[in-house]
């Protein structure tokens, strides 16, 4: 077997890039990399029972030449009996409109197209022609700009549904493969212009390092990159597990982080969580730069009340008393939800307006483990058989656990540093005129367990 083809197949197997019956969307520019990729996947089509589909984006950067390339890709796809779709977008106009570089604008448009096709046609994999040289260039570019582990790990062989079967072969090997298989490819003249940093790295920096320092620099940097990618993948998995504990709430347009939990983590994990939360709001972005992450950390450490700052792409961060809120500038606070339920005790009640479920059940003794005011033991004889569940109303008062007198509910919520927009959507549990439980916040002094308690009742709240 051809050594080049053997290496590509080895990469596909090692990273489990293809499964039987995959529907593969293949990005094809018309250059040697994407043509070699398409040719290889076509050769593997029967072995994996693949459905292939070609997508090409005409960026309109080079006028008639770009149009000819689009036509060439369409003609080739027809000859190879592979369905295709050609998109034409004025990337420069979009870049100007959005205040982006041409490169970032093109990346954003391509990502949008890939997502659209995936949703419409059910593709399971996206195959791109990035190769080993591209990955080494990306590594050096990120080093020159200043980066962390995530930047060094950019452009991995596989990420989610995206696969890069050529990730462990070089550019010259790809060109040799194209020539050997009579694959006529298009040449982008902009790749030889030294006005772009990537071209300077490829044409000047790498040859210099190869000549003056190490003739095997490409292979060594590629090995280093593979190690970094594996380390980064493990750390990312761990961060996602920690993130679940750190999030207080997550809605479309707004994510709230528990500041106390965040700040208990090592600084490296805090930085990761901040970047991960930002990416949840702006998945199409290139991520959050280091200086912005540090500004968010400074904001989180601000001791006096609330403060806010702006991040790129219309995201703001607001520090509350115990929270850090990441908010899309187009986000509107949820309107007050009206509800009124009768809760049979013992029993379970779904409060769909709050995405909560409350339960009440009797236990024989009080040795059961509790969880603050989310799972609390109370005197069952002091709780009536039917409770009312509704939002707060003006004038509400409560006698919180440990307090002799009553207090305005509004003042209690302020003292407990509950964000203003959340106060109207907290379920209030009432026994007649008395508020006896604010789930996760407090119970009433009137239903606490005492030495005279005979029947123990558990009140518990959980997310739906």
List keywords for this structure.
464 residues, alpha+beta, Phenylalanyl-tRNA Synthetase, Chain B, domain 3, 3 domains, 15 helices, 22 strands
Protein model, in words:
This protein is of the alpha+beta class and 464 residues long. It has 3 domains: 3-228, Rossmann fold, CATH 3.40.50.620; 252-328, Uridine Diphospho-n-acetylenolpyruvylglucosamine Reductase, domain 3; 341-463, 3-Layer(bba) Sandwich (Phenylalanyl-tRNA Synthetase, Chain B, domain 3). It contains 15 helices and 22 strands. The chain has a 6-stranded mixed β-sheet with strand order 3-2-1-4-6-5, with helices on both faces. A 5-stranded antiparallel β-sheet has the order 7-8-11-10-9. α10 (217-246) packs across α12. The longest helix is centred in the middle third of the chain and has 30 residues, at 217-246.
Secondary structure topology:
Elements: H1 3-14, E1 23-27, H2 32-48, E2 51-58, H3 63-79, E3 84-88, H4 91-98, H5 102-121, E4 125-127, H6 132-145, H7 149-152, E5 158-159, E6 162-163, H8 171-180, H9 197-212, H10 217-246, E7 247-251, E8 254-258, H11 259-264, H12 267-281, H13 290-300, E9 307-311, E10 315-319, E11 323-328, E12 341-344, E13 347-351, E14 356-363, E15 375-379, E16 386-390, E17 397-398, E18 407-408, H14 409-415, H15 420-423, E19 428-431, E20 434-438, E21 442-443, E22 456-463
Parallel strand pairs: 1-2, 1-4, 2-3, 4-6
Antiparallel strand pairs: 5-6, 7-8, 8-11, 9-10, 10-11, 12-16, 13-14, 14-22, 15-22, 16-19, 17-18, 19-20, 20-21
Helix pairs in contact: 2-8, 4-5, 6-9, 6-10, 10-12, 12-13
């Amino acid at each position: 077997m051809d050594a080049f083809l053997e290496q590509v197949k080895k990469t596909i197997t090692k990273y489990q890039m293809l499964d039987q019956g995959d529907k593969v969307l293949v990005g094809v520019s018309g250059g040697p990399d994407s043509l070699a990729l398409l040719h290889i996947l076509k050769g593997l089509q029967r072995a994996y029972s693949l459905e292939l589909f070609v997508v090409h984006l005409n960026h309109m950067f080079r006028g008639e030449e770009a149009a000819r390339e689009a036509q060439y890709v369409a003609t080739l796809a027809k000859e190879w009996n592979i369905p295709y779709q050609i998109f034409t977008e004025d990337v420069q106009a979009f870049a100007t409109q959005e205040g982006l570089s041409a490169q970032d604008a093109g990346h954003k448009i391509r990502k949008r197209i890939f997502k659209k096709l995936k949703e419409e046609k059910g593709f399971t994999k996206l195959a791109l022609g990035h190769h080993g040289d591209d990955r080494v260039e990306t590594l050096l570019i990120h080093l020159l700009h200043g980066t962390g582990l995530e930047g060094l790990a950019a452009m991995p062989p596989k990420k989610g549904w995206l696969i890069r079967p050529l990730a462990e072969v070089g550019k010259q090997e790809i060109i040799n493969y194209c020539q050997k298989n009579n694959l006529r490819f298009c040449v982008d003249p902009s790749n030889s212009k030294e006005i772009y940093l990537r071209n300077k790295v490829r044409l000047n920096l790498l040859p210099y390092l190869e000549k003056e320092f190490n003739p095997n620099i490409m292979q060594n940097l590629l090995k280093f990159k593979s190690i970094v990618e594996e380390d980064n993948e493990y750390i990312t998995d761990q961060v996602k597990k920690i993130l679940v504990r750190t999030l207080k709430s997550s809605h479309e347009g707004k994510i709230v982080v528990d500041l106390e939990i965040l700040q208990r983590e090592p600084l490296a994990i805090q930085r990761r969580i901040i970047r991960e939360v930002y990416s949840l709001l702006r998945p199409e972005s290139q991520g959050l730069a280091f200086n912005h992450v540090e500004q968010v950390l400074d904001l989180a450490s601000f001791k006096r009340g609330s403060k806010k700052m702006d991040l790129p792409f219309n995201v703001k961060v607001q520090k509350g008393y115990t929270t850090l809120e990441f908010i899309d500038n187009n986000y509107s606070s949820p309107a007050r939800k009206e509800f009124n339920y009768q809760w049979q005790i013992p029993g379970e009640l779904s409060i769909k307006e709050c995405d909560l479920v409350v339960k009440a059940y009797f236990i024989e003794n009080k040795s059961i483990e509790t969880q603050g005011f989310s799972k609390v033991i109370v005197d069952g004889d002091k709780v009536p058989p039917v409770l009312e569940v509704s939002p707060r109303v003006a004038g509400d008062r409560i006698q919180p656990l440990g307090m002799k007198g009553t207090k305005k509910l509004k003042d209690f919520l302020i003292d407990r540093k509950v964000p203003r927009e959340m106060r109207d959507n907290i379920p209030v549990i009432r026994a007649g005129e008395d508020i006896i439980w604010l789930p996760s916040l407090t119970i009433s002094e009137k239903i606490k367990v005492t030495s005279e308690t005979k029947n123990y009742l558990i009140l518990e709240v959980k997310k739906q």
